[in-house]
Amino acid sequence: MSLVPTTLDPDSTDILAAADQPILWLCVAGVFAVVAAQTVIYFLAVRRAAPAVGMSGGEVKSSFRAGAVAAIGPSMAVALIAITLISVFGTPGVLTRIGLIGSAAFDVAAAGIAAGTQGATLGGEGYTQAVFATVLLCIALAGAGWMLVTLIATPLLKRGTRRLESGERLAPPPQWPSSPPRPCSARSARSRSSSSRRASPPPSSCSRAPWRCSSVCG
């Protein structure tokens, strides 16, 4: 069985005939396999890091259980939007785009722009299989930018985190030498010497004429 049959008509408006191709379902299986692998990796990483923050195995399981319950509400909202877009993107396109990324507003806006450049309306007049293929390519390229940024930025952020954890600091700023002391002028030296003479107590009479007060100084 061919993954892409040659019976497709680019001018046909039968979108579901083009949307249910085996190659698209194979892409859906690959995407969900990656999601399942990431889930297992994250769960194992949390279990290894839990003792470092004082979490027991029971607390880890209860945290995952609470997160799964809290995700039901947002997932239901995305599921309702995805059901309404099956006629526009097809089931494989909805599962790989809306069901995975969850940004229905972005995908619908990007698909509308791609369809509008070819003179068609998204899901309306002129929305042929050729326009549908262009729309899928457009939203796939738009989503690839997020993935590339993640692949590039994650190692950089990881390196920065390790540097912060190791306690490395930036080099201290250079210490500029202080200005040398200013030399004293002759006037300031004379003023200090005169003030020191005024502050010293006058000599006693015994020190000036010890023979006059021999009876007192003994």
Give a short synopsis of this structure.
The protein is an all-alpha fold.
Write up what this structure looks like.
- By secondary structure, the protein is mainly alpha-helical.
- The protein has a domain at 18-165.
- Helices cover 67% and strands 0% of the residues.
- It contains 11 helices and no strands.
- Helix 7 (104-116) packs across helix 8 (129-165).
Shape: elongated
Q: Total helix count? A: 11
How much helical structure, as a percent, in the residues?
Answer: 55-70%
Fraction in beta strands: under 5%
> Segments where pLDDT lies below 50 for 5+ residues?
207-218
Radius of gyration: 42 Å
User: From N to C, what is the helix and strand string?
Assistant: HHHHHHHHHHH
Distance between the termini: 136 Å
Topology at a glance:
Elements: H1 15-19, H2 22-49, H3 57-70, H4 72-84, H5 86-96, H6 98-101, H7 104-116, H8 129-165, H9 186-199, H10 205-208, H11 214-217
Helix pairs in contact: 2-5, 7-8
List keywords for this structure.
11 helices; single chain; mainly alpha; 218 residues; elongated
